[in-house]
Predict the structure.
Amino acid sequence: MACKLEFSVETQDYGGEYAPLNNGRIWITDKEGVGVRSLNGWGGRRSSGRALMRWKAMSVVPDAVTSASLRTYGAHDVSWDCTDANGDLVPLGTYIIHVEFSSSGGAAPYFAIPFEHAGTMPLAETVAPMRGFAGATLRYKPGDGGMGP
């Protein structure tokens, strides 16, 4: 059985010029910032401006389903089974979940949470509200999967 990570985040208005329309991404990287897997995407990938610049800069395999721009803010719930975009179990180690969304062509609200995929201890973490986000929760449950170092 592979591990299971559950992540919930709630977006909120931050005064973007296109509000309430918004685009966003949730993705996983390793500790070096190399993309492991996209978990959620909404709205088209803007090719100009500064929207979603962190996501654009990451080497993330765009394997998540992307929908049209959302017309409201709200909750986004994703899960990850400790596999990469090819379905292979990832090695044990430090990973980072990232979330970024935009209602403008400028700098987008963003945050990241590092966590250990160590195969031994469960983890629960809550993120306090901040610009563009009403809050977030991360829950990690180890499994017997994942390759050793």
Observations:
- Residues 39 and 111 are 15 Å apart (CA to CA).
- The first strand starts at residue 4 and ends at 11.
- The first helix runs from residue 53 to 57.
- Residues 145-149 have pLDDT under 50 and may be disordered.
